[in-house]
Amino acid sequence: MDGAGDRAGTARPYRICLVCLGNICRSPMAEVVLRDVLERRGLGDVVVVDSAGTGGWHVGEPMDERAAATLAAAGYDGSRHRARRFEPEWFAERDLVLAMDRDNLRTLRRLAPEGADVRLLRSFDPDAPEDAEVPDPYYGGREGFVRVLEMIEAAAEGVAEHAARAVGRAPERR
Ligand code: 4NP
């Protein structure tokens, strides 16, 4: 058996890595939101989520203050994040790599081995246009971070459903 079916009933989790440029704004926000959705759906033990940046300028730093504040205002805790750079070896340890924008996607696809599952995060939002991005909020104002959070929340449910199918579990809705 191949595909989703061979995961059902096994101990191996489904592993998702969220990737942006700096790993201090968009992808760590997406990591926190997606983990929350997965936990609420009873998938926290079978789907593992992390994040990274394609660039290394901010490695070791906490989340951007505006990103953390936007999360906190919506009831999420982004305080534990420390930025990392995506390493090509990680493809072997991830089932799905989700890029925030098309630049990130291009960078990842250049690094990716054949068969790697690399997509745009917003491709999981049924209401988003084709090729929709989560735009870089770094040089803009606080309202850009609010928009980023809305886009992430709109896509996270679809990612959770995809992961639930991959592990052979229908998501538990609240
Ligand atoms: P992120 O935002 O990719 O969403 O983490 C950025 C963070 C830092 C920079 C660019 C984007 N930077 O140029 O340092």
Helicity, as a percent range:
25-40%
Q: Cofactors and ligands present?
A: 4-nitrophenyl phosphate
The number of helical elements comes to 4
Low-confidence stretches: 1-5
User: How are the strands ordered across the major sheet?
Assistant: 2-1-3-4
By CATH, the topology is Rossmann fold
State the CATH superfamily name.
Response regulator
SSE order, one letter for each helix or strand: EHEHEHEH
Shape, please? globular
Number of strands: 4
Calculate the mean pLDDT score and round it.
94
Proportion of residues in extended strands: 5-15%
Based on the coordinates given, report the CATH architecture: 3-Layer(aba) Sandwich
Distance separating the two termini: 32 Å
Instruction: Please give the largest β-sheet.
Output: 4 strands, parallel
Query: What structural class results from the helix and strand content?
Result: alpha/beta
Radius of gyration: 15 Å
Count up the domains: 1
Tell me what you see in this structure:
The protein has helices at 26-40, 65-73, 102-111, 142-166; strands at 14-20, 47-53, 96-99, 118-120. It starts with 13 loop residues before the first strand and ends in an 8-residue tail after the last helix. The chain has a single domain, classed as Rossmann fold. The chain has a four-stranded parallel beta sheet with strand order 2-1-3-4. Helix content is 34%, strand content 12%. It has 174 residues and is of the alpha/beta class. It binds 4-nitrophenyl phosphate. 4-nitrophenyl phosphate binds next to loops. 4-nitrophenyl phosphate binds at residues 20-26, 53, 57-58, 136, 138.
